[in-house]
Amino acid sequence: MLTASPVRVALRALPLALAGAVAAPALVQAQAPSASNTITVQVDKPGAPVSKTMYGLFFEDINFAADGGLYPELVKNKSFEVPDQALVGWKARKGGFTLETYAVMSQQPLSAANPHYLRIGTRTANADAGVSNEGFRGMGVKQGAEYTLSLYARRPAGSNLSGLLVRLENEKGEALAETKITGLTSEWKQYKVALRPTGTTAKAHLDISLDGAGVVDLDVVSLFPKDTYNQRPNGLRPDLVQLLKDMQPGFLRFPGGCIVEGRTLAERYQWKTTIGDVGARTPLVNRWNMEFRHRSTPDYYQSFGLGFFEYFQLSEDIGAEPLPVLNVGMACQFNSGELAPMSRAGGPNAGEAGPGTGDVSLDIFIQDALDLVEFANGPVSSPWGAKRAAMGHPASFNLKYLGIGNEQWGPQYLERYEPFAKALRAKYPDIKIVSSAGPSPDGDLFTAASKRLGELKADLIDEHYYAKPEWFRQNAGRYDSYARTGPKIFAGEYAAQSVAIGSPDNKNSWDCAISEAAFMTGLERNADVVVMASYAPLFAHVDAWQWTPDMIWFDNLRAYGTPNYYVQKLFGTNRGSAVLPVQRGAGAKNGDDNLFSSAVVDAQTGDIVVKLVNYSAQARPVTLNLQGAKKLGKAGKAIVLASTDLNAVNSLEQPTNVAPKEESFQVASPKVSYTLAPYSFTTLRIPGKR
């Protein structure tokens, strides 16, 4: 994921400057096409197979995508363990004037994994003596739905407190649900109660007050919806998961993105700390919390309630191949650029990962990768396979892909990648390794990385591109000239930027989305080279984002797909099984006169699927010459995504302002006529011979 670093902007934006110098077009009349609008689809000469992983998802915990988003825990900082911000998310009710004790403590904690807890108390009974949790820009609750409140409590010596008052309030302070917790003891004990709100709001908050005078210790305070995807305990937000599943994604890449690297190695993502008991997972600062001054979010951290087990489970739920990405021994090069030493005294695997680079060698990172494969695929008799089974999944997750490093570049990455890849291939030769070509899609660093990774016979090279919409249209032929015998390409991060890279004013406009569709026809036409592709970032909270544009936006109750989402969905749900060669008349190339095309055959249905982008203000009649087609149905289906307003966007209030519409069309012969709408992306499904 791209940061706002001036160095990064210089590195990445300047090579694209010429392509992005033209302002996004308004509603101007396009010139009449000069090349033939006859498109020959060689139905009888199917080409390369389209990988089942061709179109997938890139997930990163940015824009409150995990905590406050896909992971539906409503309490922020439930265990008082956020580094340097032990009370973030919490405040004393009524300004704290009714509390005589209000402090985070560490004496005789709940457990070694939860060394801190909150102590509150008062000598005089007062209904306002208590604390409130704000949630993630509020708490989204629905009328009549069930929410499980759970917490650990203890009555310290000398306290005679009878119990706790729990109250869920809306933004006006009106009660939506309330209950009492009684039976406090001098030992830590977990209490659970069900809350059913009497109203719906996106901005609720949770209050916990003392029922009388006394003192109480609190820890692991959770408010979790019962309605999760597949009704799973510690499950995920169902509407967001459904949006993902509806795309029929081929893979899910996680957990990022720059989140993998961390600003320092001490802040890197370590998958082993994200599994096991949810209440015992130690929070970590989110590296995006202060990255952008214009969108500072100092309360942003990672609770890891959504951890590696849950990511694997999500992949399984939506039918996607899991693609975890691990740190290669390098912190983000746009932050500290901290490096783990290549080796250290004591030999491979000596010691455990520490808080910095002093006692963390590359051997530790490599062992983490080997252990991850065992966690995902190993038998229950293996140490890490047993941990997976203990979490409720004895069967293998069938991991096939693993990323080494996120967006690193230069000789420091390549020298670490090589022993990493060597160790993985020696122990797990069937695992396909995804390597990094850096943050820019061209330039000396990109060229050097691509060359060296080719020499090392890399399986997949991850290429990233963020640029103005024009760049995507102009580069639809990017992979036409790539070597057919080298590593396969993973287009791991891309998104058209309506204003500038990293600008807070970027919009998910139709201009961006249709330009991405044009580019994707080039990916599809080159499916023998490109085997994975994913838009980035995936999610953004409307009240807590750091980066835009993003594919899916949400608040605490609602969500919508952008025009970019629908482009991705149309490609994913019409992936097909093999490429059909496509040729334009009069020697025109893909993209000439702003007409872009690709075609596949769907072996499962027998359909011929043609994707057409008309980036023109005029309607455009086209003729499809289905060469070699032996038997065709009489009626085809057109799925049209179009808007004459290139600045059109979707929103929570208008979630389908730009959304696909279906219509039928006649198929009288192998020469099919169809008129493309202005500024449209059209998918034509023509019934063919099975």
From TrEMBL:
Keyword terms: Glycoprotein, Hydrolase, Signal
Catalyzed chemical reaction(s): Hydrolysis of terminal non-reducing alpha-L-arabinofuranoside residues in alpha-L-arabinosides
InterPro entries for this protein: Alpha-L-AF_C (IPR010720), ASD1_cat (IPR055235), CenC_carb-bd (IPR003305), GH (IPR017853), Glyco_hydro_b (IPR013780), Glycosyl_Hydrolase_51 (IPR051563)
Keyword Translocase set for record: no
Gene3D superfamilies in UniProt: Galactose-binding domain-like, Glycosidases, Golgi alpha-mannosidase II
Residue ranges annotated for the Alpha-L-arabinofuranosidase C-terminal domain, each copy included: 492-680
The family this protein is said to belong to: Belongs to the glycosyl hydrolase 51 family.
Protein's name in the database: non-reducing end alpha-L-arabinofuranosidase
Biological source species: Hymenobacter edaphi
Source organism phylogeny: Bacteria, Pseudomonadati, Bacteroidota, Cytophagia, Cytophagales
